[in-house]
Amino acid sequence: MHRSDTTPTQPGIARRLRLPAALVATGALALAGCATSSGPGAPDGQVTLTYWMWDANQVPGYQQCAQDFEEENPDVLVNLEQYGWDDYWTQLTARMVAESAPDVFVDHAQQFGKYASFDQILDISDRVEASDIDLDQYQDGLVDLSRGPDGGLYGLPKDWDTVGLFYNADMVAEAGYAPEDLWELEWNPRDGGTFEEFLARMTVDENGVRGDEPGFDPSRVDVYGLGYNESGGGFGQVQWAPYALSNGWTYADTNPWPTSFDYDDPALAEAIEWWRSLIEKGYMPPLPVATSGIGTIESLGSGGYAALIEGSWNSRAMAELQGVDVRVAPTPVGPTGERASVFNGLSDAIYAGTEHPDEAWRWVEYLASPACQDVVAAEGRVFPAISSSSEKAVATFSELGIEADAFAVHVEDGTGTLSPVTDRWSEVQSIMQPAMDEVMSSTDDPGPILADADARVDRVMADE
Question: Cβ neighbours of residue 358 under 8 Å, at least 6 residues apart?
């Protein structure tokens, strides 16, 4: 997560969503990132905590959590600020350097290692133990996504996500498929299996000819069977990872804290080569089209894409698209005989430089409690980290007409793969993003390109 590349936010704009009673200059508040002990009009001794998050879809639920928390903790006021995904990390890194970061912020498995290695976020292990928090209440693996190489714990789990196959239900019915058919799809790198047959059937050229019919023109496509947003870099969560992972590939030698990555594994090259072949066949758009600036959700809603792999965190946004009935099925079964998905989770972390670590801990503890996570479950936006709250979220999704089982199947069957955790992720991505862009922009054998990139990644991991 999750990434929010397709979340409808405005990058570069901080939304001041909860303000102190006495409103001071708007511009100054929008840029405030460090807690203040009190403000004009605030009760004596009241502490103001700044809390950052990037996903606008989740703001209402966390506003409610903040209000509930403040009722129980009248000495603390929580100011919630939301930034778009890209701007979020740029701003957060800059604030860390300037020693003015938010007191508490939503953290990602691929980012926390960097901050932990620079001692910029607090190890909360002692606080967790003192509060007697039951770490077994969270879905398996989530706690590990915030655990450092020293064994310290640098955040508490807030939610989890997997990916699924979102599709235009009317287009699928018109093509002759029933919803249950999509739960039986399988793929392989030789001929694509029934999954590629499905994508061919869903693809339609400008003359109305389907991809599995004579006369189909792959150079003049009106509806692509499968959409995507970019090449996926070294992660590929909503791009190539479901295929590579179900082809027997793994990201690294160990996780969390790998010493080397496995981008030179033939199982990855094989999966990527098949995935790229969908472009050549016309079933998937070329990379310049996919990265043209039109989001995948918008393209699904407008009929440009018939289906796409996307994260559970965007389920509600998909369901709320106007004029289109969007449903979801699980990822296809691969050569291993199982489905696959990245299993990722976010945490809430405390800035090491906060002036109010005790109050910040109280807020993080509340965020990770059933009291807040049940509220989040009732919003039907994400799956909370606590297992019992996850079950409530499944019920909420079902009431909204969203097939939550398509995501939960990976938890139930153990087919989720933890997101890579390393303090070198930015360096890994700086190598893998252009490498994967090169692979997706050419027809060359991806093996040598990936092998060269893997060698450079491993040199980074070895400090060479």
Answer: none
